[in-house]
Amino acid sequence: MDRQSYEQSFGAAKIVTGSAHMLDTGNSKILIDCGMFQGLNEHLNYDPLGFDPKEIDALIITHGHLDHVGRIPLLYKYGFKGKVFAHPATFDIAKVVLMDSAKLQEEDYETRFRKAQRRGKEHLVRKPLYTRDDVKAIFKKMDKVKIDYDKKIKITKDIKAVFKDAGHILGSSFVELEFENLGIKKHIVFSGDLGNKDNEVLPPPQKPTIADALFIESTYGDRNHKSFEESKIEFKKVIIDTLLSGGNVIIPTFAIERAQQVLCLLKEMSEEGSLPREAKVFLDSPMANKVTAVYKKWSHLLSKNCQKYKKHPFEFPQLRLVKDVEESKKINEISRGAVIIAGSGMCTGGRILHHLKHRIWNPKNSVLFVGYQAKGTMGRDIVDGAKFIKIFHEEIIVRAKIHTINGFSAHADQKELLEWMNEFDNLDRIFLIHGEYEKQVVFKSVIRNFFNKKAHIVDMGEKIYL
Q1: Which residues contact 23 (CB under 8 A, 6 or more apart)?
Q2: Among candidates 147, 48, 35, which has minimal Cα distance to 101?
Q3: How sure is the predictor about 335, in pLDDT bands with cuts at 50, 70 and 90?
Q4: What pLDDT score does 377 carry?
Q5: What is the pLDDT of residue 304?
Q6: Which of 26, 78, 252, 398 matches a 20 to 30 Å C-alpha distance to 296?
């Protein structure tokens, strides 16, 4: 017997990370994303999922970011056996992301275990949520269904879906779901993460059509971004001024989308001749190198701006792809004329720490931030004007010029979210997910003024009847 359909969020409810949204149609259950909690909420990754993975008939992945795929191995650990639907580029990125996540967990465990051994408390150290071997095994047995944009596909016995390009990262999608419940046809849309339409690497998000209920991300629901053109001019000026004055530029960056965006801008500078021929650009991030290879593989999905290049959308004569640690160390020998792109994007670990240690004390150099810096990270401390930073137990003075460019976000801003929502025919009910609560309150008020409709801020575990 049919039951009333409902949605239930087990992550990204009044917070940004941990996206996991279950749709129960009364006849089948599907999950949209199963991401990892990050930052202040990372302890939630060790809590129960909140649902039984054995009861989930299918998993839809909107895109490959860790906060949307990071708990997928736990689904399999607890008995999930359904089909997994995503764009093939998303499967490629998700594998890179999950392998990197497992590697970091293993390394963190080994470090904490060694320290605990010295105190006789190794039994208290939590094991990784999953290992690289687990990820390899999952991708071998995963029942993957590789979707095409704009084509209706059967998800379960009663659910059909159309995936559309969300323009957020390569392969990202928003999903239009259709099913019948208690004799009434339903149209439910999950936005995933929507992209910034001025992003030069990817095309803008596609237009949606119809929704009885929309579950929409609200990451930047409280603000509008600085213009992309203005940000691009500022970016180029920092690069040129620093190199011509005999310095080096250090760019902390995220491996997915932001690194490719930076490469795209530097390639443009190389092509137009504004990047000095003698300059050396280093992409010193194993993960970013892997993701860039995925972007090259699926280059037909990129923007016209990127597709205009006949060979490679990101490579140019001054670029060096750094493969190993020894090659990374050799960059320290270069005294001037280097642009160094490395992770992590918020300076919380990775090779960027070594480059900052060797260069942030020199007033000729520049540190160029092109992404959001969360509270409590070294990146945020630097942006906020820290005079000294501690790297590997060494106190280092900050003398380099610090620049922050805010127009390169991969997320739609408030104006773009409203414009995208305005494309719907007969939009009835609006539910806010994937955003910090304070920002959702602002966005809710703006939606009320713009559409004369009420939006509901979704609580963790709350049942939303559809």
Answers
A1: 5, 6, 7, 29, 30, 31, 32, 159, 177, 188
A2: 35
A3: very high
A4: 85
A5: 86
A6: 252
> Under the phi-then-psi rule, with left for phi > 0, alpha for psi from -120 to 50, and beta for the rest, what region is 66?
alpha
pLDDT above 90: percentage of residues in the chain: 88
Tokens 């939590």 appear where? 126
| Partners of 210 in beta bridges | 425
Contacts of 290 (CB under 8 A, 6+ apart): 96, 255
Contacts of 131 (CB under 8 A, 6+ apart): 102, 105, 106
Whether residue 309 has pLDDT greater than 80: no
| Phi, psi angle pair for 183, to nearest 5° | 80, 5
Angle at 173 between CA 169 and CA 175, to 5 degrees: 160
CA dist 58 to 81, 96, 124, 186, 246, Å? Answer: 8, 22, 35, 18, 56
DSSP 295-344: HHHTGGGS-HHHHTSSS-SS--TTEEE--SHHHHHHGGG--SSEEEEES-
pTM above 0.70, yes or no: yes
Return d(Cα 295, Cα 314) in angstroms, integer: 9
Helix (H, G, I), strand (E, B) or coil at 12: coil
pLDDT tens for residues 354-380? Answer: 999 999 999 999 999 998 787 788 998
CA–CA separation, 10 and 6 (whole Å): 13
Q: Which amino acid is at 16?
A: V
Q: Is 69 helix (H, G, I), strand (E, B) or coil?
A: helix
Q: Residue 31 above 90 pLDDT?
A: yes
CA 384 from chain center: how many Å? 24
Percent helix / strand / coil, the chain, rounded to 5: 35, 20, 45
Q: How far is CA 452 from CA 56, 68, 166, 422, 455, in A?
A: 36, 31, 25, 12, 10
Furthest-apart CA pair in the chain: how many Å? Answer: 74
Would you call 463 helix, strand, or coil by DSSP? strand
At residue 1 the predicted structure's pLDDT band, cuts being 50, 70 and 90, is low
Residue range 100-136, pLDDT digits in tens: 999 999 999 999 999 999 999 988 999 999 999 999 9
